[in-house]
Amino acid sequence: MRYSTLAGGAKRAPPVMCVAACELFGLNRLAAFPTACALEMVCACSIPFSSSSAIEFIQEKKFGELAQCSAVCGGLLAGAEDEEVERLRRYGRAVGVLYQVVDDILKAKSESGDGAVEKGRGGKSYVGVYGVDKAMEKAEELRDEAKKELGGFEKYGEAVLPLYGFVDYAADRGFSVG
């Protein structure tokens, strides 16, 4: 566990998202650290299992659930209103699934060499079921959905910007969505 958590290359997105959501509502980031550390440990210990053929993860059960939990935990720690927590829940799910869809697109394109990937080509992924073009459309929808949810936090000014950063990072790894 220690090795996985401290290993180079760990993305640390779940704990950072938790801290960013906590700060959005004005609470000091230190208040989120214990929960953020727990989220990182969950993420780190799930990595070896996520590619296991024995455990079939679908999009919403991969990073979608963890991102949703991360955003919601930050909001709950800071005393967000119920409506705000629900908005964070929808935002987190959209960002998490967006990250996974883009990850699947990048993997499929790198495996095909020329970027041409046919639908129906193995696996429980958007690319495997629908093909790259439909997966890219889904990624664009998810990006728009996540940003729409963040629009409800405009009253918090620049404090919402780190959460927008997760959307852009999830979408723009290796190609541009939207």
UniProtKB/TrEMBL annotation:
One of its GO terms (biological process) is isoprenoid biosynthetic process. The keyword Cell cycle does not apply. GO terms for molecular function: metal ion binding; prenyltransferase activity. InterPro entries: Isoprenoid_synthase_dom_sf (IPR008949), Polyprenyl_synt (IPR000092). Keywords: Magnesium, Metal-binding. Its cofactor is Mg(2+). It comes from the Eukaryota. Belongs to the FPP/GGPP synthase family. PANTHER family: FARNESYL DIPHOSPHATE SYNTHASE (PTHR43281), HETERODIMERIC GERANYLGERANYL PYROPHOSPHATE SYNTHASE SMALL SUBUNIT, CHLOROPLASTIC (PTHR43281:SF5). This is Geranylgeranyl pyrophosphate synthase. It comes from Linum tenue. The lineage of its organism: Eukaryota, Viridiplantae, Streptophyta, Embryophyta, Tracheophyta.
